[in-house]
Amino acid sequence: MQKILKFAFQTVAWALIVAPSICKAESLRLYVNNSRGDSVSVIDLGSLKVVKEIKVGEHAHGVAVQPDGKRLFATIESDHTLKIVDLEKNAIIASVKLTGRPNQCAVTPDGKYVVVPIRDGDSVNIVDVSRSQVVKVLPIKEPHNAVSTDSNRYIYVSSMGGNEINIIDLKKMEYSDHIPVGGRPRPYVLSKDGTMMYVALANLHGFVMVDIVSKKVTRRVEIPAKTPGPPKPLKFETPDTRTHGLALSPDEHELWVTSLVDDAIYIYDLQAQKIVGALPTGEGPNWIVFSPDGKFAAVTNTDSDDVSIIDVNTRKELARPKVGAAPKRIVAGVSNNH
Fold first, then answer.
1. Chain centroid to CA 245: how far?
2. Are 331 and 290 in contact (CB under 8 A)?
3. Residue 121 φ then ψ, to 5°
4. Which positions ≥6 away from 229 have C-beta within 8 Å?
5. Which sign, positive or negative, has the C-alpha torsion 210, 301, 56, 335?
6. Confidence of residue 15 (pLDDT cuts 50, 70, 90)
7. Topology at the third CATH level for domain 4-334
């Protein structure tokens, strides 16, 4: 564990890690997977409009993009593949056959490896990008989301069946640690120093804080719902899902949490340890990311087929562009062809 902590970890949305000094709004893109469609929608953060659709295959589940903006990776449930897309050519350059039905993937910053949880195989596939093939399969109980930091050696993957987050050592091609989180983990994010993890759990309208070094849950935050009565039925999520998106602001002062109960985002001040704001979204807010400069937050609204783009400073929704069917995962990155 101590070796792991030597690396300067970043947030879960590693694709957002770009020096603000070189990032301009017109060069930034949002990449949105359409889980009931066959494409990834691309939103320009300068115009706040969809500028293209990248065809990747039916039922895209996961999406990741290299920090340099050169390649996008999409996991496809219909044919159990990982599509590698050249974003400069806007073309699929490889289709990697996986061992089962894939979930949310993660790529190392150098683009060498992509880690793909295989939901129906209780395993994780490690893909060598240059060889376009699976080079290692690791066992894991009911995997869900893979997360990359700024380390080219370590990647995180959640085990819903094991109630833990596991750390993969890509040098050794094996697990280096297992972090219990006190329940079935859904989305999760990491502090920059790699010592704290914020995890959404099944049946919890909120999240837990987990000390990675001690491997202990240090705080459980339950957010009071504003919508009265039992949670409404969801079109594309299981009944135990209350929160399906977490994002840590670039300055790490706030944690933004999506609420499937209230169709809203809740803003949690990490220093004051309390909710300091709530913002309405579209229907079924799912995944959430911040732009690299911290100016925008974007939320996929699965049940209304759109994306809420929010001005972080004013706490106001700027636009809600329509995308494809049932958008879920979303990442942000730099465009090299604008």
1. 8
2. no
3. -120, 5
4. none
5. negative
6. very low
7. Methylamine Dehydrogenase; Chain H (2.130.10)
Tell me: pLDDT of 20 over 60.
no
Q: Residue 190 has which token pair?
A: 């990491």
Q: How far apart are CA 91 and CA 93, in angstroms?
A: 6
Cα separation values, 325 from 86, 312, 321, Å:
23, 26, 13
Q: Is the dihedral of CA 135, 11, 261, 34 positive or negative?
A: negative
CA dist 104 and 329 (Å) reads 8
d(CA 248, CA 263): 19
Backbone angles phi, psi at 4, to 5 degrees: -65, -40
Question: Please, are residues 188 and 202 in contact by the beta-carbon 8 Å criterion?
Answer: no
Determine the Cα–Cα distance for residues 338 and 323; give it in Å rounded to an integer: 20
Question: Is the model's pLDDT at 8 over the cut of 90?
Answer: no
pLDDT tier at 99 (50, 70, 90 boundaries)? very high
Residue 168 CA to residue 138 CA, distance in Å, equals 9
Rg (CA), the chain: 18
Q: In terms of C-beta density within 10 A (0-12 exposed, 13-18 middle, 19 or more buried), how is residue 314 classed?
A: exposed
Q: CB atoms < 10 A from the CB of 230, how many?
A: 8
User: Tens digit of pLDDT for each residue in 266-282?
Assistant: 999 999 999 999 999 99
Q: Where are the domains of the chain?
A: 4-334
In whole angstroms, what is the distance from residue 27 CA to residue 50 CA? 14
Residue 261 C-beta-side C-alpha neighbours within 13 Å: 22
Confidence at residue 337, expressed as pLDDT on a 0 to 100 scale: 62
Query: Using one digit for the tens of pLDDT, what is the confidence trace for 230-270?
Result: 777 888 888 899 999 999 999 999 999 999 999 999 999 99
* pLDDT value at 330 more than 90: yes
**For strand 164-169 and strand 154-159, is the pairing parallel, antiparallel, or unpaired?**
antiparallel
